[in-house]
Amino acid sequence: MTSSVLPSTFNARTGRTQGYSTATSPNTKPLLLYTAGTPNGRKVSVFLEELKEVYGLPYDVHPIDISKNVQKEPWFLALNPNGRIPVLVDRNRADFPVFETGAILLYLAHHYDTLRKFAFDRAARPDEHSEMLQWMFFAHGGIGPMQGQANHFVKFAPEDIPYAKKRYLDETKRLYGVLDMRLTGRDWLAGAGRGMYSIADMNALPWVSSHGFCGIETLDAWPNVKTWVEQAMARPAVKAGMQVP
């Protein structure tokens, strides 16, 4: 399996040795994203659009019709035994497959964001790197599952279960409150000062921005979250990524 990092070069302007990802190489093959128009799928497509904007990283999209359980077919289970989208296949690294959205974001940051525009270097900025992971795991283990269950019981459950709807809506709102506390005096979830836009934000944004689907009509109760969503959604790469597939 080949390395995804090209030889380093010396930048005379900064006085630093700088490594470049294969994203900057004319020989780079497009990555392949198997996805659907869900919050989890759009976490990855947003990051891919950000990488395309900064590095010119190409990628292809293979839409998966989850309403027909395509993600349960044997060929897909060979890529992700859990039968869920999204899955990334790295054609530059012997078609290496990656599943689970948090794992995909970290993989892309490691192999393709070598200028660390969207993540924190673990060696150079260990505390900020830890903060990034903490908020990624917070969203991955909290907002996604809770809001996903709220979506199910509000929109798709075959019977009306008021307790379930209230439980998951209340927990989703509580988690929004945690985000609101974190974003007090900050622009982004991780990083010193007001923070730096990173994969920690991308990991939570598609869920929070789709709050209306589960019946949370407005973010007015969480003004810091509302501002965070608005400024993130104004980014051209976010707008493009949220339209995939």
Describe this structure in words.
By secondary structure, this protein is an alpha+beta fold. About 45% of the residues lie in helices and about 10% in strands. It has eight helices and six strands. The chain has helices at about 40-55, 75, 100-110, 125-155, 160-180, 200-210, 225-235, 235-240; strands spanning about 10, 15-20, 30-35, 60-65, 85-90, 95-100. The strands form two sheets. It has a four-stranded mixed β-sheet with strand order 4-3-5-6, with helices on one face. A hairpin with a 5-residue loop joins strand 5 (about 85-90) and strand 6 (about 95-100). Helix 4 runs antiparallel to helix 5. The radius of gyration is 19 Å and the shape is globular. The model is unreliable at about 1-20 (pLDDT under 50).
